[in-house]
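User: For my dataset I need records formatted as: sequence, then structure tokens, nothing else. Please produce one.
Assistant:
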Amino acid sequence: MIPIKKQPEPPHFFDTVQKPGEEFLAQPLETRGSKLPAYWRAIIPDLRKAYHGICAYTCHWIPTDTGSNTIDHFKPKARYPQDAYRWDNYQLVCGTVNGRKGTNENVLDPFTLQEGWFAMHFPSLQLIAGKYLLAEAMKQVEQTIKILKLNDSTCIRGRRDWLQPYLDEKYDITYLEEKTYVGKLGVRQADQFTEERPQR
């Protein structure tokens, strides 16, 4: 994970999502029931465009054909229905990691994350806490990695699938950074590792 700059909501967001959502919530609970209408689904394409199709947690590009674009309500909508229709509470996340997060509130927010809190270990490609973090921040990073399973075989394979072609010079850093924020986490380390690796 790396810090992500929050993007402005699209012009039609209020009419498409926020207004009908707030009108629904204004009804008495016994009348409307507890199930929230998923008005937010209408702006998934806008969210994808705003964040370049990259998952906020894995930092990988979500393929348009086989990937699963989902909206993560960072503050869970079941507990915070008043925020269910707020653009600021939405993050573009792949379906796999969104399911892992669920309603857990002990995950770091990419919008408020500090630079350098996450690092990548080479050659394992595991995410680790940044070197100079205080104990509490380190605990938060490690907890986020554990909850989201960011070091499982699927996530590590995803990092390798993006980094290896770059190391093999099949594409340059510009393309890499368009498709994954992993480059910002570990390209310098990857380059150094490649230079130090004994030649076969």
